[in-house]
Amino acid sequence: MPGKKKSDYLSDTVKHIEIARHNVVPLVDAMADMAFSARDLARAAGIYHRMLSDKNCSVILTLSGSLFSAGLKKVVVDMIRGNMVDAIVSTGAIIVDQDFFEGLGFKHYKGASCGVDDNELRRLRIDRIYDTFIDEEELRVCDDTTRRIADALEPRSYSSREFIEEMGKYLARYGKNKDSVVLAAYKKRVPIFVPAFSDCSAGFGMAAHQWENPEKHMSMDSAKDFLELTRLKIEARDTGLLMIGGGVPKNFAQDTVVAADILGRECPMHKYAVQVTVADVRDGALSSSTLKEASSWGKVETTYEQMVFSEATLALPLIAGYAWHKGAWKRRKARNYSDFLNKGAV
Question: Does an H or E element contain 295, and which?
Fold first, then answer.
């Protein structure tokens, strides 16, 4: 009996949830009178709404985990378009393998987490992300597109923000799916930082670019990333963190307060902070370190901070949707931090 074809697996696409279509305010308000994680989530949603209501506060969104492949991309697109976020720090997989990939016109597909033969998936060149599937051959197109973008750039060092801006320019000209975080951020002048840029699909493109151009090539400068985000923090002063997951993006954003101090600039701790995570606080991992712990490092104030121990596809639509329908974002103005950073060093 012949095996399955690729099309048998890649048929039912993941749909991105839209916060504008679901008014969750009554639900979240009701959760505030419950206990455990429900109350924590309601308080987190209130803190995010408070960030957006604070006219002096700039919001930094951090992202880690397989978020956009799971249907959360449109949430972040709408947050950008609505001035609900002023800067983003992310893993490369989210921005490149998941968002830029879909911006090129490709899709993620509903799959299964068990009962599937991963060896057969490998034979068919299908990659699995828990219960979603992605076409490896399409992902290679994404890899090669980042190589071609790199090939077209002046040979020098770039921050990931500068390179992702070039990706935004590419999507503005050639993109097939306009609901892209990279594209929306490019148009709204919201900087995106990916500190570990090579740890994703783009890393293959970068490696190919440097392999083929050993003498003169562009390169990624993570120290430049850190300096740019620190400059943004110094300029913004009052900041709020909305952190989905942990890892490098979480630490990178929090550390800007300490970096500013090392640079001799007086800079307040992050005024607001919310983190959504499923990491266990008992194992000492960065992803699970509490926001109160971050206060001991001089990074986060403890007046408006909240940990939410929940999986992101459950929590983010409720937190972002609550703030969307409360409407404070309608009175916010764009910070245009991409343009500020393009002006050069302070």
Answer: helix 291-296
Q: Is the pLDDT of residue 1 over 60?
A: no
The C-alpha atoms of residue 274 and residue 307 are separated, in whole angstroms, by 6
Active-site residue, 299 included: yes
Q: What is the dihedral of CA 113, 114, 115, 118, to 10 degrees?
A: 70
Neighbours of 83 (CB within 10 A): 18
Domains annotated for the chain, with CATH where assigned, are 18-328 (3.40.910.10)
Out of 73, 74, 299, 326, pick the active-site residue.
299
Which of 256, 249, 253 has its CA nearest to residue 234? 256
Instruction: Report pLDDT digits (tens) over 209-251.
Output: 999 999 999 999 999 999 999 999 999 999 999 999 998 999 9
Percent of all residues in the chain with a pLDDT value above 70, rounded to a whole number: 94
pTM, entire model:
0.95
Give the C-alpha distances (Å, rounded to integers) separating 220 from 159, 203, 257, 342: 6, 10, 23, 16
